[in-house]
Amino acid sequence: DHRDLHLSLRRQRQMCIRDRVIRGHMLVWLKKLDNLFFIVGRSLLGLYFIVPGLSKIFNYISTLTLMKMKGVPFSTALLPVTIAIQLLGGIFLVLGKNLRLTALILFGLTIFINIFIHNFWSLHGDPSQAHEIQNFIKNLAIAAGLLILATKDKN
Question: Is 148 helix (H, G, I), strand (E, B) or coil?
Fold first, then answer.
């Protein structure tokens, strides 16, 4: 009985050591992919802004109408500014240029868009409220990612 317990403890110890070694190798391997993950993640965030920026160009009048309907101040002036920020900011993210400043500007734009466009709190009883809540929360996650990205600037 005593020998069985001793063998069992020895096997557990060996398994624990083996598991630590395997986890350590996996972490080293994953660490080697950090740069790739950073580039892919940054590029996906960039595309998140480039595509809507282009969409606003091709749907300029309907976007301007939506902004005015939602009460965005200075809509006529802010729409081209928004397009420029989304396109240039998205391109800068993809290229990895001026990450801190770019991410902070896009963070501010995302919060501004959330407040004026995805204002779910003013849609009580409206069927689109749930969709706007989802967009609002999604944009908060994007904003959080931008804040994290702002800490990774190599300049």
Answer: helix
